[in-house]
Amino acid sequence: MSLPDRLVIATQEFALASWQARHIAARLQARYPGLRIDLLDVSGGSADVAVHAMTDMPMRLPDGFVLAVVTEREDPRDAFVSNRHATLADLPPAAVVGISDPRCEAQIRAAFPHLRVAPLLGDVHTHLAELDDGQYDAIILAAASLKGLGLAERIRTCLSTDECLPAPGQGALGLVIPADRPELAVLLAPLNHAETADCVAAERAMSLRLDASCETPLGGFAEVLDEYFLRMRGFVARPDGSEMLRAESNGSRAAAVGLGRQVADLMLTEGARALLIPKV
């Protein structure tokens, strides 16, 4: 099978998506020096590869497309960003924390009920500008996004996964290709990271089993314990953090999808269905 000498990667205009596409292009060109790569806006025509943050990847891909690669996970944690305070615990009562994710909001509300949570709208640079303008005392953003955009210096601290459990797939990128292009799968295969792929498979299987809308506060995070086993944790909650169900299990990497389903089933057995916001 001959590999292509030209590749078109779909991208979008906003900064984070552009960085993700350029990051993948740079990795491919480092491996294949003669490979010509073009970046194409998704509205401008057909592409060979689409790069997605795994947190944004649909649980069910459209017919005719496959997830070919899951890249090595970058920092999966949530970052605390503030100009005046070092940690969440340092914030005074009624301090305003900007959060864009129901998952993170529920966990922060549960742990710090004395704080006020306000929504974040727009992109990362907009969030930071609003923080600097005094609209928030602090904001919570994905650490991987800040680091990818060269803004790691804005991070005061990162929340541990015990403090704020990440979203399924957080910190990893996925590469989607047409199902009938096996030569693309071969070309991209060196970018796949087996450990991350197993973890993300478990996390997404949990989310798919719960089948909740994106408005449901839901976290899922798997970690490699050793060559053969994973630890998987998950939670669902009410948006205000007043009620939260957690589950955890260890299982074989070879059965990562089954492990994710098991964690979902543990929560469903405890009544998680009542906390899930149904899809419209």
UniProtKB/TrEMBL annotation:
Pathway: Porphyrin-containing compound metabolism; protoporphyrin-IX biosynthesis; coproporphyrinogen-III from 5-aminolevulinate: step 2/4. GO terms for molecular function: hydroxymethylbilane synthase activity. The gene is hemC. Belongs to the HMBS family. Its EC number is 2.5.1.61. Monomer. Its cofactor is dipyrromethane. Keywords: Porphyrin biosynthesis, Transferase. GO terms for biological process: protoporphyrinogen IX biosynthetic process. GO terms for cellular component: cytoplasm. It catalyses: 4 porphobilinogen + H2O = hydroxymethylbilane + 4 NH4(+). This is Hydroxymethylbilane synthase. Gene3D superfamilies: Periplasmic binding protein-like II, Porphobilinogen deaminase, C-terminal domain. Residues 199-268 form the Porphobilinogen deaminase C-terminal domain. Tetrapolymerization of the monopyrrole PBG into the hydroxymethylbilane pre-uroporphyrinogen in several discrete steps. Residues 45-183 form the Porphobilinogen deaminase N-terminal domain. It is an enzyme of class 2 (transferase). InterPro entries: HemC, Porphobilin_deaminase_cofac_BS, Porphobilin_deaminase_N, Porphobilinogen_deaminase_C, Porphobilinogen_deaminase_C_sf.
